[in-house]
Amino acid sequence: MTLAEIRHDLHANPQIRFEETHASGVVQRELAALGIEFRAGLARGTGVLGYLPATTDPANAPTIALRADMDALPIHEETGLPYASTIENRMHACGHDGHTTILIGVARELAAAKERPNNILFVFQPAEEGGAGGDLMVKEGCLSGKLLGKKADFMFGLHGWSTVKLGHVATRVGSLLASTDDLYVEFTGQGGHAAAPETTRDPVVAMAHLVIALQTVASRNVDPFDQVVVTVGQVHGGTTHNIIPMTAFLQGTIRTMKAETREKVCDRVRVIAQGIADAFELKANIQVERGYPVVVNHEEAVKRFLRVAKETLGDEYVSDRAKPTMGGEDFAFYGAECPSCFYQLGLIPPTREDYESVHTPYFDFNDSAIETGVRVMTALALSTD
Q: Among the CATH numbers 3.30.360.10, 3.40.630.10, 3.40.50.300, 2.60.120.10, which is that of 3-177+294-381?
């Protein structure tokens, strides 16, 4: 199968976090056909780790790790493509079918290479979309040499990017994607008749105050040049128009670009929520659940990436000024283990000014970007100091 055919097959058979049996099977089939040693059944069953040793003295050779995520999203596809999803409410709306295909293509190139100065780890992970599959892969030893090969010296990962031109790549030193923490606050008071509010302790009014007060965290509690988002995505309370309910709750997300800011913002959110509950004489259940850390690109890994990408694509196709995003990525867990670089792979065709956004029913990874991804990842795997 060509790489495009593999990508279309993956796209037509999407599965969400920890259910990626089809993608995992395709990866195992391709690695086996190439004679690449691998371990399957990782990270609750679908993760795969491949290992290809250096052609000379693998015991002393450096080790480069490359990562692809395999999971889809619970979205109903509306692209109308001939290879559109065949599974209801499942779709590769974030391009992980493209990421997996690229790493399969890299495996093909490296298996055929006559000389490989580095050991290569191929990390095919499940559950990037909310399941922290990367964290599980790290904890099970995919970068430590515990499962296969040697400890990783560098790691690289990519993501198809809807705001970068086809054939181009971009990254930056430092924070690239935000931490992602979930917020849940429930207020419990005393319900009653809407016509007699003086006999109640109204959680809905308190919740309204909280929604507004949370917006002051970014505007009044952190440096204006720092990047912080506190968004309330759900507010629920009551069953009808003339009853003041006993409880009301909200859910939201907290995004930051610095570890120290993350701690400050999460603490401030708790204090504000508890303070409003106290002011309105309500009981409060406040939960801030930690999600993914900030994706922080290591300076040495970025230097290597920029040098290799420019040698491979040309200076004009490589940027070191990627725009940070408040979206999250569990690639962050790999960066805590070894010097790592996450980069953006352009998807916008030359005939267009924009491209469909990820996480929408209309997104489809651009097949034309596969070649660029394979070239850059292969060159990184073969790169030396």
A: 3.40.630.10
**Is the CB of residue 22 less than 8 Å from the CB of residue 97?**
no
Torsion angles phi and psi, residue 114, rounded to 5: -75, -30
What digits encode the pLDDT tens for the residues 4-30?
999 999 999 999 999 999 999 999 999
Topology of the domain covering 179-289: Alpha-Beta Plaits (3.30.70)
Establish whether domains 3-177+294-381 and 179-289 are of one fold. no
Instruction: Give the β-pairing of 63-69 and 47-52.
Output: unpaired
- Spans of all domains in the chain: 3-177+294-381, 179-289
User: 303 phi and psi, to 5 degrees?
Assistant: -60, -45
- Asked if residue 214 lies in contact with residue 232, where contact means CB atoms within 8 angstroms, the answer is yes
- DSSP letter assigned to residue 196: -
Listed residue (81, 74, 73) closest to 4, CA to CA: 81
| Residue 331 near residue 369, CB atoms below 8 Å | no
- Cβ neighbors of 183 (< 8 A, separation 6 or more) are 230, 232, 250, 251, 252, 253, 254, 269, 287, 288, 289
Q: What is the pLDDT of residues 239-263, one digit of tens each?
A: 999 999 999 999 999 999 999 999 9
The structure tokens 């509950």 sit at: 277
Whether the model clears a pTM of 0.85, i.e. scores above it, the answer is yes
Q: What is the DSSP string of 240-280?
A: STTEE-SEEEEEEEEEESSHHHHHHHHHHHHHHHHHHHHHT
Q: What are phi and psi of 140, to 5 degrees?
A: -85, -5
At 347-376, the pLDDT tens digits run 999 999 999 999 999 999 999 999 999 999
Cα separations in angstroms, 172 against 133, 181, 317, 342: 24, 23, 14, 9
